[in-house]
Design a protein that fits this description.
Radius of gyration: 14 Å
Helix content: over 70%
Distance between the termini: 39 Å
Number of strands: 0
Order of helices and strands: HHHH
Structural class: mainly alpha
Strand content: under 5%
Oligomer: single chain
Length: 87
């Protein structure tokens, strides 16, 4: 697989992932690169937290991951607002 095909496959996987869906990775009506970058970063963070949550049986750790995911979603929305302010 060439580099472009690999990058496209990785992007598709991220879009379809829990984190990608949680941040609405495909929703960027302004088509700003900065918005895509922020959403991609938060999608990756959320995916990491979701993996941690799924790997543990500790209810407190699951709860903490869920709170962190919720807060990451909120932070992502504020970050996009900051990036698009005044446009």
């Amino acid at each position: 697989m060439d580099a472009n095909a690999q990058a496209e496959q990785e992007r598709k996987e991220l879009v379809e992932s829990y984190g990608g869906r949680a941040v609405g990775l495909t929703f960027n009506p302004s088509n700003l690169v900065a918005v895509d970058v922020v959403k991609t970063q938060y999608a990756e963070i959320i995916n990491d937290l979701d993996a941690t949550r799924n790997e543990t049986d500790d209810p407190e750790k699951k709860r903490l991951c869920s709170i962190a995911i919720t807060e990451a979603q909120a932070a992502q929305m504020w970050a996009v607002k900051a990036k698009t302010w005044g446009l």
